[in-house]
Amino acid sequence: MSSKMNPLVLLSIFLDIVTAANIFVSHYQGTIQSLTLTPTSNGGYTLTTNSSANVGGQPSWMTFDPATRTIYSSDETGFGSASLTAVTAAANGGVSLVGKATGVTLGGVHNTLYGLGYIAVAHYQMSSITTYKLPLSSSSRSLQTLKYTMNGPGKIPSRQDAPHPHQVLADPTGSFILSPDLGADQIRIYSIDKSTGKLTECPNFITAPGTGPRHGEFDGKTLYVGNELANTVSAYAVSYPDNGGCLTLTLKQTLTTIANNKTLPSGSKVGEVHVKGRFLYVSNRRDLSFSPNDSIASFSLDDAGLMKFLQITSSGGTYPRTFSINKAGDLVAIGDQTTANVVVVKRDVTTGLLGAQVASMRIGSTGTPENDNGLSAVLWDE
């Protein structure tokens, strides 16, 4: 006697196997979670919790190395002792803590992998960048600590009382690390010794006073930087001298990230920046463009890398600190910090337009604006 499975059930199982995707999420309560995004038979999606790892401290940022399936998380703890953690992700997305460096400089807000097995961390609170050799363990110690000072406060003293490096990112050649410094109105530039991990200072790029550069992303020989204090995004031409030497930047264009130059509520600020194909996206925090929700601004890019405002869409929550575009380019995961929810929206791969929300899930406790709580980062498992 034989039995046959319902074709709809078979289709559902097939869709789950082929198209289910994992999303990593960090929360300031000390956890890194893996969520599974699964398509439904009616064309929608569901988000469910797959796995959770307790990493302690205040995980603020995640960098994923797909080659080793390791997530590296910086810790924004502002007192006592901070850490830098390594979390392994199984093939099914399950996460578990595998390494932790302790006694790390406080206030780690971002990290990046570089060279032959090194990681750099930006420490906003402590006005510094540190570097470490991988793998991480309890015996790990910083290779370099680059400490910054200022002669006096910047144009916006409440935010520019000291240097505040907010990101570290490697250029496409892997030969340089850049760090937007919100407090000092600079983009710091370092050359990399790939073997030893040593960073050597290059001439910095000085932005206009009160710009507050926060996060950037390279697209070939153009660098796009979101400016937190000015609520703008800037495009820079990237140059490499023929005889070696240091990478240099030339400002090409700066645009507002808000539609119709509307008056912004107090506390509005740019979040993260991403490029996908010939399109650029910037998150706006506390702009209330879709009150009570905030927004994602979209721009088209021409052959010269110049930006043109395209659209503004809801972030599906408040304070979109981070967002991540999948490799296929058809889905965007948004991490709304204050409402502590992950929102997934559609993206048209041809027009670059962001579309309908297809899934949303609350993660942990909600946060409060201007505080290190709520959801901190979101990242596709790719």
From TrEMBL:
The lineage of its organism: Eukaryota, Fungi, Dikarya, Ascomycota, Pezizomycotina. Pfam families: Lactonase (PF10282). PANTHER family: 6-PHOSPHOGLUCONOLACTONASE, 6-PHOSPHOGLUCONOLACTONASE-RELATED. GO terms for molecular function: 6-phosphogluconolactonase activity. Belongs to the cycloisomerase 2 family. This is Isomerase YbhE. InterPro entries: Cycloisomerase_2, Haem_d1_sf, Lactonase_7-beta_prop, WD40/YVTN_repeat-like_dom_sf. Residues 1-20 form the signal peptide. Keywords: Signal. It comes from the Eukaryota. The keyword Coiled coil does not apply. It comes from Hymenoscyphus fraxineus.
